[in-house]
Amino acid sequence: MSDPIVFVVDDDAQAGRAVSELVRTFNYEVRTFQNPRDFLEALQELDDYQVGCVITDLRMSGVDGMELLQRLNERSSTLPVIIITAYAETSTTVRALRRGAVAVLDKPFRDDELWGFIQEGVSRSVSEVSRTRRQQELEERFKRLSPQDREVLKLIMEGSKNRTMAKRLDVSLRTIENRRRRIFDVMQADSVAELTRMVVEYEYRLPATSPSEETWLHLPFERVA
User: Fold this and answer.
1) Could you give the C-alpha distances from 142 to 48, 71, 129, 188, 214, in angstroms and in order?
2) Phi, psi torsion values for 167, nearest 5 degrees
3) 8-state DSSP, 213
């Protein structure tokens, strides 16, 4: 996993430098941006698994801190956001926290306050990157399953026995055994319990299209635009 980077976004150059210098005393790599749009463009060059967090001022010309937070959410960014402001309002703080911000920090703030929130942000980022990697690994495994394999997988999740599967799918028992073996090999699972955990884990990150649908079998590569 990459070393953490703290991104400081503030259109006030002096304020941005002050925060950046403080963060460097915590032994983190820092990248500073005066223009939020420049920061968003720079994100496109980053590794998908970059760990870190963003410290942004609330009031900026053009894209403000709340909008920046929203845009990062829309990109499913793994970089948590800390908002700093001299104009804190309860409604703003509530909205920011509901949108996933680590904190809204009032100016002037204590060094240990910022340090604590940076640690929390980086910790969240590490967890999110790990989940993202895991999701991609599971998706790659699911992609290797044929439609016939997924039919058997669905029946395994229902608790069906091999003979029952063979009858329902109108195939031989040997065919079911072969498909079952392939499913466990491809998914790298040693038991039904582990296979079930993988399916549920993957389902958790997929948006349901309908409460009645079995979303765990509606994989991204099967969807029709």
Assistant:
1) 21, 30, 20, 11, 15
2) -70, -45
3) S
Task: Output the six-digit token pair for 51.
Answer: 């760990």
- Concatenating the DSSP letter of every residue in 156-210 gives HHTT--HHHHHHHHT--HHHHHHHHHHHHHHHT-SSHHHHHHHHHHHHHTSPPS-
Tokens of residue 128, six digits = 């999110």
Kindly state the average pLDDT of the residues 108-116. 92
User: Which helix (H) or strand (E) segment is 85 a member of?
Assistant: strand 81-85
**Cα–Cα dist 92/164, whole Å:** 57
Tokens of 14: 């002096």
The mean pLDDT value for 157-164 works out to 93
Q: What length does the chain have?
A: 225
Q: What are the strands of the beta sheet with 29-33, ordered from one edge?
A: 29-33, 5-9, 52-57, 81-85, 103-106
pLDDT in tens, 86-109: 887 788 888 899 999 999 999 888
The pLDDT of residue 4: 95
> pTM for this one?
0.73
* Mean pLDDT, all residues of the chain: 87
